[in-house]
Amino acid sequence: MFFSGGNAADAQIAAQAVLSAVAPEACGLGGDSFAVLKSRDELVAINGAGRAPADAESVSDDGAQSVTVPGMVDGWDRLATRGRLGLRACLQPAIECADQGVRVDPGLIAARNVQAKRLREGGADDWALMSLSEGGKWKQPELAKALTLIAENGSSAYYSGSIAAVIQDVLATRGSAMSLRDLAAGAAAESEPLTVTFEGHDVHMQPPASQGVLLSMCLKAWAEGGYSASNPSADHIAVELTQAAFAFRDQVSRGANLLTESLEIDLGKASLRGGPRSYLHTAGVATADADGMVVSSLVSVFDDFGSGVFVPEYGFVLNNRGGGFSSGLNRFEPGKRPIHTLAPALVEGPLGCIALSTPGADGQVQTLLQILLGWLGRGDDIAQVVAQSRWRSEDGKLLVETGHHARDDLADRGHLVVDTHGGDMRFGAVTLAGQSDNSPFALADWRRNTWAAVS
Fold first, then answer.
1. Are residues 167 and 276 in the same domain?
2. Could you tell me if 428 and 359 are in contact, meaning their C-beta atoms sit under 8 angstroms apart?
3. What is the reported pLDDT for 282?
4. 387: three-class secondary structure by DSSP
5. What share of the chain is helix, strand, coil (3-state, %, to 5)?
6. What pLDDT shows up at residue 454?
């Protein structure tokens, strides 16, 4: 996109679209996107995630009753207004991938094998992916047709055209209350990011329905507590802060008001209160251009292959974001958005602005906190920080990556440490791009399948 004269917004659309063609277990046309964008003229958060059907009486974690209005395509329209090339050019690489075929990687085959029963129950019996082996060439003419319709007609092709009619029909035959009216209402919304100051930098987070505010709470509590990232107990404090913040997860819709809440922690020993959960999915994209536009995003269908409900005419699965509803302020209601784990960030400081994101569901807040503590708190090189071993709190236990310097200290303080091999996908995969001191850079994590390039 850059070689074609495009900017960071164009590159975002193109990358997200290609991901929908090569990683349908993680994201796709039936899923959602969140993005935070900074240019010379604006700072904006784009929420590309829709609502539960207006006439729904209940919601489930899986299947047709778990599908909320997909928002990624609507998010593309919002990004395209900040781009230069238009949707046709931005979607062309993905159309070529789908039409000409791509080689299937081992991760996709492994996910398909685990989810094969759900996919078949969701109508994917004849999906070419179901019979492919690792390394096989996968052509997706149906997906190419959907992408072409969107390239030519914009998001209206998806939300009020033939794609919408097919989505509604597929869901209706499986008992969903999703209507054409729900789809025609679209999904995306724009607002100001939620910003806190940390170590002389502004950290801009996606506001609700994202749970990015939980990271903002941790950063604010760290600054107010006067903690040092160089202290031997720094990792213990960070674990405790994340667990304390996740106690407020069902209240995420309060947004900036949550920053008035105190996070009470034990500086000496593990509280074992738990909070973060074990599931993980999603894909991240970070882009930046020479004119100062920086964009951080995450795209997802929630669980692997989302709801498992397949749209055969257009070759994609639908999300199961209805499974994100819980209790309290996050309880299910018709026409309501659930809380999302997707939490892209922008970090703006004296040297420039950097886009930062990672997949990993509830691990996102934890990974980003560790990156920011090492980079801004200790002043370490950002590439070294991304490469370092991490921890992840989930389901009451603390996964600790092989070689972590604080492993023994965390165990001694009472954390239920589970030694976990380096590179385990639960530790995320940071995507990072921006400009620092007038020099562009991009950084790929060694974990998962991640790429970086500078043109």
1. no
2. yes
3. 87
4. helix
5. 35, 20, 45
6. 87
357 domain residue, yes or no:
yes
Strand ranges across the sheet with 194-198 = 194-198, 201-205, 345-349, 352-357, 431-436, 439-444
- Bridging pattern class, strands 316-317 and 194-198: unpaired
pTM: 0.95
Pairwise CA distance, residues 203 & 232, whole Å? 25
Task: Measure the CA–CA gap between 271 and 131, rounded to whole angstroms.
Answer: 48
- Do the bridges between strand 439-444 and strand 345-349 make them parallel or antiparallel, or are there none, so unpaired? unpaired
- Segment 166-187, tens digit of pLDDT: 999 999 999 999 999 999 997 8
Mapping DSSP to helix (H, G, I), strand (E, B) and coil, where does residue 310 land? strand
Locate all alpha helices (DSSP H) within 194-285, ordered by sequence. 213-225, 234-246
- The answer on 176 and 159 residing in a single domain is yes
Do 199 and 149 sit in the same domain of this protein?
Answer: no
Closest CA to 236 of 266, 263, 210: 266
Give yes or no for a contact between 338 and 52, defined as CB atoms under 8 angstroms apart. yes
Residue 362 and residue 232 share a domain: yes
Segments forming the whole domain that contains residue 411 = 194-280+343-444
Nearest to 115 by CA among 322, 310, 280, 308: 308
Q: Which residues contact 66 (CB under 8 A, 6 or more apart)?
A: 59, 60, 307, 319, 320, 321, 322, 323
